Amino acid sequence: MIALREVRQEYPGRDGKTVVALDGVSLEVRAGETLCLIGTSGSGKTTLMKTINRLIQPTAGQVLIDGRDVREQDPIRLRRRIGYVIQKGGLFPHLTVADNVGLLCRLEGWDPGRIATRVAELLRLVTLDPERFGDRYPAELSGGQRQRVGVARALALDPAIVLMDEPFGALDPITRAQIHEEFLRLKAEVGKTIVIVTHDMSEAFKLGDRVALMDHGRLVQVGREEELRQSPASPFVSDFLRSHLHA
User: Fold this and answer.
1) Does residue 88 come out as left (phi exceeding 0), alpha (psi in the -120 to 50 range) or beta?
2) Other beta carbons less than 10 A from residue 219's beta carbon
3) What are the pLDDT digits (tens) for 122-170?
4) Which of 211, 203, 195 is nearest to 244 (CA)?
5) Cβ neighbours of residue 43 under 8 Å, at least 6 residues apart?
6) What is the pTM of this model?
7) Measuring CA to CA, which residue among 224, 204, 162, 205 is closest to residue 187?
8) DSSP 3-state assignment of 100?
9) Alpha-carbon distance 234 to 167, whole Å?
10) Which residues fall within 8 angstroms of residue 140, CB to CB, at 6 or more apart?
C-alpha cells in the first residue's frame, strides 16, 4: 500500500550547516496494517509520515502509494484520499461537530442529504450520538470527544490510508486507555492502512501490528513486539525499550 525508497530530507540549519531529518529511509506498509512510528525527539518520525501525503517533499528518494509515485499525483486529490488525524483532533472551532465531520464531503460537492447521512454514520462509528453531538462546537466537547470527531472526519471520504500524528498524546491516562480500546474496535471494523506517530512505546505495541523505531533520521528496526523485545537490532533498541517500558 505504501512504500518509501531511500527517502532523504535535508534542510538548512540555523548555523548554515545542513540538517538531515531523514537519512535514506526505506519502508513498506502493508495494506490493512497499522504501523506505529516511534523514536527519540527529533528522530524524523513526523517528517517521515508527512512525506506520505506530500505535506513534506523529500530531498531525494521515492514515496509510492499503490505503486504510484506521490509526486505524479495532484497533492489536493492525494490528501483527500488519505485521512489525517492530529493531536487534539485539529477541529475548526467555528464549525459544529457535524460541519467538521462533513467538511471534505462538502468540498467534494456531495448533496446535503448524502452528507447528513454520512456524518450520522461516522459519529455513530466513533460512539458519538449524532442527535446529541452534531450541533455542538469543539469547545463544548471533552478531549476524548474531540479526538473521536477528528477520527470521524478523517474517515469521511472512506480513504484507504489514515495518518495519525500523536493522536492520543494530549489525553489523560484513563481517557487514553478507553480510546485505545475504541481504536482497536474501529480498526477491526474499517480495515484501513494506518500509520501512527507516537512517543509511547506501550501505545505503539498495543495499537500497531508492527513498530518502526527511528533515531536521528534513520530507521533502526521494524518488527512486531516480540521481535523487538527478543531480537533487538542494536544496543540502541534494547536501551530504548528498557527506558520506555515499565514491564
Assistant:
1) left
2) 24
3) 999 999 999 999 999 999 999 999 999 999 999 999 999 999 999 888 7
4) 203
5) 214, 215, 216, 217
6) 0.91
7) 162
8) helix
9) 29
10) none
* Cell numbers placing 235: 544496543
**What CA–CA distance (Å, rounded) separates 107 from 45?**
30
All cell numbers assigned to 236 = 540502541
Which residues sit opposite 211 in a β-bridge? 36, 223
Q: Which three cell numbers stand for residue 183?
A: 481504536
Strand bridging mode 60-65 / 68-69: antiparallel
Amino acid, single-letter form, for residue 210 = R
Cell of 55: 505535506
Name the one residue in this structure whose C-alpha cell is 509526486.
71
For 162-179, b/e burial (b = at least 16 CB within 10 A) is bbbbbbbbebeeebbeeb
